[in-house]
Amino acid sequence: MPNNKTRLAVFCSGTGSNFRSLHKAIAEKPLDAEIVLCISNRSRCGAMEYARENGIAAAHISEKQFVSFDEFVAAMLDALHMHGVDAVMLAGYMRKVPDAVVAAYHDRILNIHPALLPKFGGEGMYGIHVHTAVLAAGETESGATVHLVNEEYDKGRIVRQERIPVLKEDTPESLAERVLACEHRLYPAALETFLEELKAAQAQ
Ligand code: GAR
């Protein structure tokens, strides 16, 4: 029987809790997809450990390893093609995806951002910096956004959001923790819809 599952790569830079939640959702639901590759700009991080422990190919691909940006991009595209990747999920990837990769996977790259885009996105807005900015702006709600990735930071079409209240006593860390819990619900749900859309597009 041919395996028609959508082959996914995750791009990560850190703990990888979103990667884990996607992997768990795919196994439990079950969703018609499999995570076949983890790419990270860091050789050692929670996400890469998780990939290795779970028999998922783990590729350390960082700009620093290459003499030119073009070679870095070629290595990334090679890894994606070698593993027959159909679509990419950014899960705590703290680098901009090269334009050539965005072009090769047009409308097939999703990102999760820890705020309600279009607010609190763009260069420098990642991880704890986002939550610090949300509190500094006196926002009464925050949340998470899943969006398609285009050539501009955090600007692609929004596919799903979930809101949570900001509490008076919140610190950037406490807000980050509650937003992350929200991300772990949101990203698997968005993946489900995304997979249906990919299948529908393929059938056309
Ligand atoms: C998550 O909150 C994710 O939204 C954020 O980094 C965290 C990674 O956690 N991503 C960004 O800020 C990207 N702009 P994880 O490694 O445990 O999934």
What structural class do helix, strand and pairing data support?
Answer: alpha/beta
- Helix count? 6
Mean pLDDT metric: 96
> What's the helix-strand series?
EHEHEHEHEHEEH
CATH superfamily of the largest domain: Formyl transferase, N-terminal domain
Radius of gyration: 17 Å
Strand order of the largest sheet: 3-2-1-4-5-6-7
CATH architecture of the largest domain: 3-Layer(aba) Sandwich
Biggest β-sheet, characterized?
A: 7 strands, mixed
The ligands bound in this entry are: glycinamide ribonucleotide
- Label the overall shape: globular
As a percent range, the share of strand residues is 15-25%
Q: N- to C-terminal separation?
A: 23 Å
The level of helicity is 25-40%
Q: Which fold name fills CATH's third level, the topology of the largest domain?
A: Rossmann fold
- How many separate domains? 2
Based on DSSP secondary structure assignment, what is the total number of beta strands? 7
Low-confidence stretches: none
CATH class of the largest domain: Alpha Beta
